[in-house]
User: Which sequence fits this backbone?
DNA sequence: CTTGGTATTTAGAATAAGTCTAAACCGAGA
DNA sequence: TCTCGGTTTAGACTTATTCTAAATACCAAG
């Protein structure tokens, strides 16, 4: 993927292609891992002639998320919440109210009729025991 | 729910029922919200004759999770990861390796055959737009 | 009862991801 | 060239959670 094609992608998404944004976006579009902001910083800082600030990495990643170029993946808890409901169920967070809704696991196939708009399916937590098979 | 029945539950799960643990477990088993550790502290500290430390709340909640009395619900990011894959898909985290596996959304119904043991279905992220309907 | 040992609780320090701030910088137009 | 808005920067700040080391409570054996 060339630098200028990454620039084109940024422009298409309404993001001004600064050198910092271009190298970060290029890295994000090429990698198939799910890097943290710090991992992005490590991977990308050598690609720039100037020092790259941690704040710029966060700013840029947030900009790219807002522009729809990349997506956030929540993997660990900042604010862990706890739940005494031990049945298999999903958690859905209303983007507007923050309210958490429990959905029994067997309803996963019938989700959309339960929901209106502006609703983010946030967390699907069931614990299986075992290992990933090779694909 | 009586204090002594909460004690019984703790004992059944192999947890020594200290006063702090009993009031925290009682609150967790009675509430249907998804409180944070701080919210638990606020709700529970007046129920004890002595001061309740924040560390004790965290210790106790972790103890209850380990014992299988309650479960963690991840709602916000501590370590946000980013992903350029914008197709609808799920994220599964291998508990052992930490490796994240993408699963296309249409495979949700056929999950278990893909997985072995020791595998935690961690995050299911699809954005719908709309609002929660009253239930 | 004592004593001793282990588990628990405590206050406060430490950690770490992410945001904020204020100054410096840059590039496009007048 | 000058100016202005947007961008980047270093470092301070915030906040959830964990760590630490001391104090306390509890139980078992003498």
Assistant:
């Amino acid at each position: 993927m060339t630098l200028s094609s990454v620039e084109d992608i940024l422009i298409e998404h309404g993001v001004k292609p600064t050198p910092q944004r271009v190298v970060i976006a290029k890295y994000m579009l090429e990698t198939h891992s799910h890097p943290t902001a710090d991992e992005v910083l490590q991977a990308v800082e050598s690609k720039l002639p100037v020092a790259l600030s941690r704040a710029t990495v966060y700013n840029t990643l947030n900009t790219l998320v807002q522009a729809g170029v990349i997506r956030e993946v929540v993997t660990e808890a900042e604010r862990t919440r706890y739940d005494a409901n031990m049945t298999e169920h999903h958690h859905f967070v209303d983007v507007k109210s923050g309210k958490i809704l429990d959905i029994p696991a067997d309803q996963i196939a019938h989700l959309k009729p339960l929901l209106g708009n502006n609703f983010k399916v946030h967390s699907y937590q069931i614990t299986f025991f075992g290992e990933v098979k090779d694909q």
User: Anything to note?
Assistant: Residues 16, 18, 20-21, 50-56, 59, 77-80 of chain A lie near DNA strand D (CB under 10 Å from a C1'). The two ends of chain A are 26 Å apart (CA to CA). Chain A touches chain B through 65 residues (CB under 8 Å). The first helix of chain A runs from residue 3 to 12.
